[in-house]
Specification:
- It is a single chain.
- The protein is elongated, with a radius of gyration of 21 Å.
- The N and C termini lie far apart (about 65 Å).
- It has 3 helices and 12 strands.
- Helix content is about 5%, strand content about 40%.
- It has 2 domains: about 90 residues, RimM (Elongation Factor Tu (Ef-tu), domain 3), CATH 2.40.30; about 60 residues, SH3 type barrels.
- The chain is mainly beta.
- The strands form 2 sheets. The chain has a 6-stranded antiparallel beta barrel with strand order 1-2-5-4-3-6.
- Strand 11 and strand 12 form a beta hairpin.
């Protein structure tokens, strides 16, 4: 896998409060370390804009994680950061050391195979789920499927061979059917 691929550490949702803090949606397990005061951050928006910013403060609150950036001392200055992703080069992130441990970036691009070795698809991305993370698998037969990364289903991750072995329950790897669209309602207006 390419070390130059960006990894999203967090998304900036919106300004919070009057002091220029920003409410985050975290995608990092170590936010206190990643967003320590003085840390330099790379910001990227979906429209192609990018910027650099320096962390002034970070704190966890009951409403969620809050980040303060240098130069954003009020709600007006903070608004310009809304919607940005905080990204890092995958090659610059610390690696996990233990066996059986992996990072999302380790899995993207792996082939997905059944226990008998038949390939069924490729992992396109990882989504964080409430009970377990989910591998978004582009199926070789067409469509995509969400595969829970739990030991009962994702039975082996072999990074060297570039594959994830799955033992799925029946129907898990069936492409999701398109949702039917409802016919538009006609509304009669009084004359």
């Amino acid at each position: 896998m390419s070390a130059s691929r960006p990894v999203i550490l967090a998304r900036i949702r919106r300004p919070w409060g009057l002091r220029g803090e920003l409410l985050l949606e975290l995608h990092s397990d170590w936010p206190e370390e990643r967003f320590a005061p003085g840390a330099e951050l790379e910001l990227a928006w979906d429209d192609g804009r990018s910027a650099r910013a320096t962390v002034r403060a970070f704190r966890q609150t009951g409403v969620g994680p809050l980040l303060a950036l240098e130069g954003a001392d009020g709600i007006g200055e903070a608004r310009v950061f809304a919607g940005a992703a905080i990204v890092a080069d995958a090659g610059t992130l610390p690696r996990l050391a233990g066996d059986g441990e992996w990072q999302h970036d380790d899995l993207v691009g792996l082939a997905v195979v059944l226990p008998d070795g038949r390939r069924v698809g490729r992992i396109e991305e990882i989504e964080e789920g409430a009970a377990a993370d989910l591998a978004v698998v582009r199926l070789d037969a067409g469509g995509e499927a969400l595969v829970p990364l739990v030991p009962a289903i994702a039975v082996a991750i072999d990074r060297e061979a570039g594959r994830l072995v799955v033992d799925p329950p029946e129907g898990l790897l069936d492409p999701a059917p398109a949702e039917p669209t409802a016919a538009p309602r006609r509304v009669r207006r009084p004359a």
